[in-house]
Amino acid sequence: MNVARLRQIALKMAMLGSLVAVLSACVTTGPASKLGEKDPEKAVKLRTQLAAEYIRSNELDKAKRELDQALETNSRSVDANLMMGVLLQQEGSPSNMKKAEDYFKRAVSIDGSNAQARNNYGTYLYLLDRYPEAIAQFKIAGATLGYEQRYAALENLGRTYLKVGDTANAEKAFTQALQANRDSLIARLELAELLYFQQRFTLAGQMYEDYVRYTGQTNQGARALWIGLRLARARNDDLGMKVLVNQLRAQFPDSQEYKRYLELQHSSEAVWK
């Protein structure tokens, strides 16, 4: 895996944001080394929780030591295997990215109904452009009722469908994500653009306006501003378009979105892409 490929993965991880949901829990018990003498399974759980905290603070060596001990105690712990996959993926070197898959696969094989394992494995596959395989994992996670992050799995599913050009299923997945969590900002923004491309401008505008209400006008990224700008143009909202152009120019002058605006500003096409 070359440097360019690693940079591409890093960009995807930044774009996806919370795609990888690290297991979380408050650490309230005593030291794992002492607890392990009395209750090995609780020690495994505690070490995995500690590892999650270390991963969040980018103390990867400490996380690795905790997970090594957790897996030595119980090699079939779904959570410990899953967390090891997350750790190795976050480190990101070619050798560790390759090793990460073994841990994700093991977590899924131990408990195929574990939606978090499916979601995290799907994330790994997405980052490596293995989209059909990622779709299979996200579909299972997104269909698991009661899974707290089900909406996130559906967001991931929608984004992966977009990667393979399946806009119909992408729209369906984002709609389901919004049904699972009315506060899903990703689903609102993605639906706004999908509906825009379908020239369903009124509904697209509603999705975008809801997104802005949640995030705030001044907290939008370049892509959100570009979507809003195109919608304003399509709806003949000259003032709204001017405001968004000025905001895009001021905040993201070097962005691909602003460069695209400069290319298209005199175009008469009904739908700017």
UniProtKB/TrEMBL annotation:
The ranges of the TPR repeats are 151-184
Any Pfam family: TPR_16
Q: Which UniProt keywords apply?
A: Repeat, Signal, TPR repeat
Instruction: List the InterPro entries hit by this protein, alphabetically.
Output: Pilus_4_PilW (IPR013360), TPR-like_helical_dom_sf (IPR011990), TPR_rpt (IPR019734)
Task: Specify the taxonomic lineage.
Answer: Bacteria, Pseudomonadati, Pseudomonadota, Gammaproteobacteria, Moraxellales
Q: Which domain of life is it from?
A: Bacteria
Q: Which organism is it from?
A: Acinetobacter marinus
Please list which residues make up the signal peptide: 1-25
The name under which this protein is listed is Type IV pilus assembly protein PilF
* PANTHER family, per the entry: BARDET-BIEDL SYNDROME 4 PROTEIN (PTHR44186:SF1), PTHR44186
NCBIfam families per the record? type_IV_pilW
Alphabetical list of PROSITE patterns matching this protein = PROKAR_LIPOPROTEIN, TPR
SUPFAM superfamilies, from UniProt?
A: HCP-like
